[in-house]
Design a protein that fits this description.
With 298 residues, the protein is an alpha/beta fold. The protein is 51% helix and 13% strand.
Length: 298
């Protein structure tokens, strides 16, 4: 690996945002032999990561980006992403020409295109690269990563991304990664609601719900959600997984984009309102499979 910001395989990388996803993702990079520097708004979290994985921490996005060939980030939303890229002490002001910025935040396609243009003015390539697989996927290094941006930069960044991903795909130009993540969340909406309705129906019909799941999960209705959340839904266990707050944020992005492109999302819009009811009941941090609570409490 080379230590310059040219076209050789990168070895010096940085990671901004050590939340439930970023913390293990950065750890996989370190475990794969990359020299990793980290930044987190809460300094204690960055110091804890360094104590576990080595490397070093920095006091700002700019400071952590100075010598990095690739800067990764995983933050909360569009505003957070702008703050760590083009805001005061943002990474873009410190990155060398030829460096790559890989964003794993689930954000809007609009901000992805905006930052791709801002990066290009500085000689930086921006890749929007949201992920699917949740906290467990990040910890196990088996995420799915959907990327938008330039093919050459994608190929340079791909080996590093593969340190924590099972599947990585270039979906098209800037914004395409975020749009693909929206498709993923739209597809989940009806699936989760249908699974909740089916399990509630099975219980009310007097069936052995876990036996039902064991049988139908081998048939046409099989899904990851059924195999990984069906039993916990039946047992009323929701204190884990992908939080309702996060799903509502993602649905907001989907619905906003649909207003722009003319897509009709009646099921996603309805399920979004169901999640609003879950939030009102104090379930903001419950897993998205908690939709079944609304049916049980009728």
């Amino acid at each position: 690996m080379s230590d310059n910001a040219g076209k050789q395989t990168p070895s010096r990388v940085s990671f901004i945002g050590l939340g439930v996803m970023g913390y293990p993702m950065a750890g996989h990079l370190a475990g794969s032999g990359y020299q990793v520097s980290v930044y987190n708004r809460t300094r204690a979290k960055a110091q804890k990561w360094v104590a576990e994985h080595g490397g070093q921490s920095a006091e700002s996005p700019a400071a952590v980006a100075v010598e990095a060939q690739i800067v990764f980030t995983c933050v909360g939303n569009d505003d957070d992403l702008r703050a760590v890229t083009t805001g005061p002490d943002g990474a873009f002001e410190a990155m060398a020409p030829g460096a790559i910025f890989v964003d794993h935040t689930t954000a809007s396609a609009k901000v992805a295109r905006e930052l791709a243009a801002a990066g290009a003015e500085r000689g930086i390539t921006f890749l929007d690269a949201p992920v699917s697989g949740g906290e467990a996927g990040a910890q196990k290094g088996i995420l799915t990563v959907m990327v938008g941006g330039e093919p050459e930069a994608f190929e340079r960044a791909r080996p590093a991304i593969e340190s924590y991903a099972r599947s990585v795909g270039l979906m098209g130009p800037s914004g395409s990664g975020q749009l693909t993540k929206m498709v993923n969340q739209i597809c989940l909406a009806g699936l989760l609601q249908s699974l909740a309705e089916g399990l509630d129906f099975a219980q009310r019909a007097g069936l052995d719900v876990e036996q039902v799941l064991a049988v139908i999960s081998k048939g046409a209705s099989q899904s990851w959600q059924m195999e990984n959340r069906g039993v916990t839904m039946h047992r009323d266990e929701f204190d884990f997984g992908f939080a309702v707050d996060w799903m509502r944020k993602d649905f907001g992005l989907c619905l906003d984009e649909a207003r722009r492109n003319g897509a009709s999302l009646p099921v996603a819009a309805l399920v979004d309102q169901f999640y609003a009811r879950i939030q009102a009941r104090g379930g903001s941090r419950w897993d998205t499979s908690s939709l079944i609570r609304l049916l049980r409490d009728n």
